[in-house]
Design goal:
Layout (H helix, E strand, L loop, with lengths): L4 E6 L3 H16 L4 E6 L7 H9 L4 E2 L4 H5 L6 H8 L4 H10 L4 E3 L4 E4 L4 H14 L3 E3 L4 E6 L9 E5 L3 E5 L1 E4 L5 H9 L8 E3 L2 E3 L12 E11 L2 E12 L2 E3 L1 H9 L1 H6 L4 E6 L6 H14 L15 H10 L13 H12 L1 E5 L1 E3 L6 E3 L7 E2 L4 E2 L5 E3 L13 H16 L2
Parallel strand pairs: 1-2, 1-10, 2-6, 10-22
Antiparallel strand pairs: 3-5, 4-5, 7-8, 8-9, 11-19, 12-15, 12-18, 13-14, 13-16, 14-15, 16-17, 20-21
Bound molecules: flavin-adenine dinucleotide.
The site of flavin-adenine dinucleotide has 37 residues, from helix 1, helix 2, helix 7 and helix 13.
């Protein structure tokens, strides 16, 4: 029997658990002796998994074409491609199924455990870690990492833990998510940290068209964000909140424009087509047809199918059309104004807001310094990374967890 290889994983979140479990399983199947410890600073593990996806955990996304999958990462798509060819969304689904957890897709492609409860994922990880002898140490706040001999192809490392002294490891993995600690450790070991900025946030907007409509949603809107000289486009469901706009269309565009929005202090212009997918001419034709077919009806009572009456009332008020005016009496100018409001209303974005949705950090450990075949540092051999600590982030929909699963799985093949 060979010497025990000691692996310390810093951070008991999604990537940390996935790496630990897979590494323990690999060691078991190759009869290698390992000691795997997860050090978690707080008093409980897997906190984000628990609250993710509104308590349902959006585990991954139902796109099994790796190239298409990687298009959903504003940062890291190129580097992730080779990694995902080895462990992708389909492998995630199989991985959980092998452990008795069925992952199912919703119409929009997001995938959840069929229990619709993130606790299923948490339980699966805790059971697997226990079965495979992974040691999970909570209240272990790592304060620094030192590599004892800088030239060696792996450790040993000293991992210093607040009030608990120093622990020795042959391999160390940093899976501290968006915590500042992880970025500091990486920097102290020679890595570059790219500019950090929040991603996946809602927009603060004050506009008559949205007032008193909080909670109202649109199934498919096109959005265009103009930040300084740059223009970003996306589409998807849109939600009116107490303070402005949210929903997948907004979260996605906030991810694409994360760095530019930070530089512009979250001031931008946002153009919305509330009838996403329709061009201006077809919106105008639709409104004209409503008139033609409903000459005697009052304007408030007839409106495009995809809209609600509450929103339609706002559109009429915005275009100064009295609600009780008969469709027959609406002028061409009024039809034009209504169509323009639906097709392209411009809002001033005043700032950012976090809604209930996921929130991730854009920026992190520079990807050029990582060997994606192993998820190992090119600067400090024996040091591994996965998850949000890297300069990789995805749009909303399960892509951020998939980044954690993929990186962690690859690292788990490479520790020994
Ligand atoms: C509200 C919310 C909902 C989300 N929902 C989804 C979703 O449904 N689908 C999706 O794909 N993504 C979702 N995300 C994003 C996703 O949760 C993260 O991308 C993912 O958790 C990153 O995994 P990670 O392992 O890198 O980091 P984390 O899961 O954040 O884990 C990092 C761990 O490291 C620990 N740590 C930090 N510093 C130290 C230290 N010095 N010593 C020891 N431990 C330390 C932290 O306490 C934490 O437990 C959501 C995010 C939020 C905030």
């Amino acid at each position: 029997m060979g010497q025990t290889h000691k692996i310390i994983i810093i951070g008991g979140g999604a990537a940390g658990f996935f790496a630990a479990i897979n590494a323990a399983e690999n060691a078991k199947s190759s009869s290698r002796v390992v000691k795997i410890q997860i050090l978690e600073a707080s008093d409980s593990v897997l906190k984000k998994v628990r609250i993710s996806g509104g308590g349902r955990c959006n585990v991954t996304h139902n796109i099994f074409d790796v190239r298409r999958f990687c298009e959903n990462y504003p940062r890291g798509s190129k580097e992730l491609l080779s990694a995902m060819l080895r462990f992708q969304a389909r492998d995630t689904v199989d991985w959980f199924l092998k452990r008795g957890v069925k992952i199912v897709a919703e119409e929009d492609g997001r995938m959840f455990p069929n229990t619709n409860d993130s606790e299923t994922i948490v339980r699966c990880f805790l059971n697997e870690a226990e079965r495979l002898g992974v040691q999970v140490l909570i209240n272990h706040n790592v304060t620094s990492i030192t590599k004892l001999s800088s030239g060696s192809s792996s450790g040993p490392f000293h991992v210093n833990v607040s009030n608990k002294g120093s622990m020795m490891a042959d391999s160390v993995m940093i899976t501290t998510g968006s915590s500042q600690h992880g970025y500091r450790f990486a920097k102290e070991l020679g890595h570059t940290i790219t500019d950090l900025a929040p991603s996946l946030f809602s927009f603060k907007i004050s506009n008559h068209l949205l007032s008193e409509l909080s909670g109202l949603s649109f199934s498919h809107a096109d959005v265009q964000l103009i930040v300084g000289e740059k223009c970003f486009k996306d589409s998807g469901p849109l939600l009116i909140t107490h303070w402005g706009l949210s929903g997948p269309a907004i979260l996605k565009i906030s991810a694409w424009a994360a760095r530019e929005m930070k530089m512009a202090d979250y001031k931008a212009r946002l153009q919305v087509n509330f009838l996403g997918g329709e061009g201006f001419e077809s919106v105008l034709a639709m409104v004209r047809k409503l008139k033609e077919d409903n000459l005697k009806a009052q304007a408030i009572n007839i409106y495009p199918e995809r809209l609600t009456k509450r929103f339609w009332a706002k559109v009429l008020s915005n275009c100064r059309v009295p609600e009780d005016k008969r469709w027959a009496d609406l002028t061409n100018k009024e039809l034009q104004n209504i169509s323009e409001t639906l097709f392209k209303t411009e809002f001033i974005v005043l700032g950012k807001n976090r809604y209930k949705d996921e929130f991730v950090e854009c920026g992190g450990v520079c990807l050029k310094e990582i060997n994606f075949k192993k998820m190992e540092s090119k600067i400090c051999p024996g040091l591994f990374f996965a998850g949000e600590v890297l300069d990789i982030d995805g749009i909303t929909g399960g892509f951020n967890f998939q980044n954690a699963w993929t990186g962690a799985w690859i690292a788990a093949q490479s520790f020994l």
